[in-house]
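Here is one chain, start to finish.
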Amino acid sequence: MTTVTTETALDRFIEKTRELFAGEPDPEKRWVALTPVLQELLADPTVQEASARWPANVFTDRAENLLFYEDPDYGFAINGLKREVRGRPVVNPEHPTWRGIHDHAHIYTLYGVLAGHEMIERYRPVEGAERRADYIPIEEVGNFKVEPGSVDLVRPYEIHAERSLGEQTVAIIVRSERSGGFLQGRYDVETGEYWQGYGPKQREVEMFPDA
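Its structure:
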């Protein structure tokens, strides 16, 4: 009996990403060029259909991502994020006024929206303000709405947050390195408090689960 292996949209994305990384060593150029490749994955109807069967992520005082793939040679990771509608935001008990503003430390991240709408906020340290190991005052420098098909490039140490607009959202996230094993910055815009915490926990799942 012959076994037939069908190439999936994820297989094609991985192949194109590996080809791009092999031919482009510059990280900035590499991640800018990957944007339309991710947009192609987001537009694939088989991915959109499969996402209805992905489990919702569980949020406590730390985020969670679905892990679809981690590349053995180039290190990039492909994540999923499925947020259900919540009545109130999750609160970090040690930092009760924190509103989820963070950076991704040294890694590049492409955040691609598959379903739903969100607001993305951008921040920067206040120029000339006092800074300490536990204090970095920040200010908002912009915000924009993202919708299905949108891809947001988050460069190393860029300060940002995603805001729910009261609906379920699903995203595919490509990172230059699997998160969760290194510390990332956390910022409180109200108090200027700064601290570090580990990134999202990883839950390994299949992008195309059995129906």
